[in-house]
Amino acid sequence: MLRIVSFTFNGFAENTYLLIDEATRATAIVDPGAYSRAEQQTLRDYIELEQLSVKYLLNTHAHIDHVLGNAFVLKTYPGIPFLLHALDLPTLRAVPTYAGPYGFAAYEPAEPTGELAAGQVIALGESKLEVRFAPGHAPGHVVLYDAAGGQLIGGDVLFKGSVGRTDLPGGDHPTLLKSIETELLTLPDATVVHPGHGPATTIGAERRSNPFLH
């Protein structure tokens, strides 16, 4: 069984996730937004307290708020794979050009060691994550689906009552809506969506009432 723990970090109120395989304590860190030393310490303390074994660093996409803690994670847990979709590499590599003006002058870049791709299955202890390609908010955006647990790490694709913005470089609104239609709304209504910002929701709730999907 996969347990999902969230932390809200940085000035963008970004949700950082720990995906924890309960049987083995194998853990993936997804979209680490921990920027300040206090935020980084909070993340590290929880992992130590729970005796988790960090196996992966995964980015759903590479906008600044989701990658501020990448370098910290890789320094703290050396040797773990850092995976990102290849189409979001330019997004990641652009972050140093605007981190300072956004108030994150101490941002440290980090380079992925591997790729995420549509249909890829990531084994995390006894749990499995399916990678689904869902561009529109960012060119290489992916979501991570835990079919056994009925839950999805959705990044900035679908929110409670809203959808991801598409006015940033590489964004495209029709592409985003197509991604939601084909990659998210095809999941069971009971699927819990853990978004990059704000509270969790379900596929069914958004199918019924999200004004952007009607």
TrEMBL record:
Coiled coil: none
Species assigned in the record: Hymenobacter ginkgonis
Keyword entries, A-Z: Hydrolase, Metal-binding, Zinc
Basic and acidic residues biased stretches: 205-214
InterPro entries: MBL_Glyoxalase_II, Metallo-B-lactamas, RibonucZ/Hydroxyglut_hydro
Highest taxon above the source species: Bacteria
Cofactor: Zn(2+)
Organism classification: Bacteria, Pseudomonadati, Bacteroidota, Cytophagia, Cytophagales
GO molecular function: hydrolase activity; metal ion binding
Metallo-beta-lactamase domain residues: 13-197
Protein name in the entry: MBL fold metallo-hydrolase
Region described as Disordered: spans on this chain: 191-214
PANTHER family: HYDROXYACYLGLUTATHIONE HYDROLASE GLOC
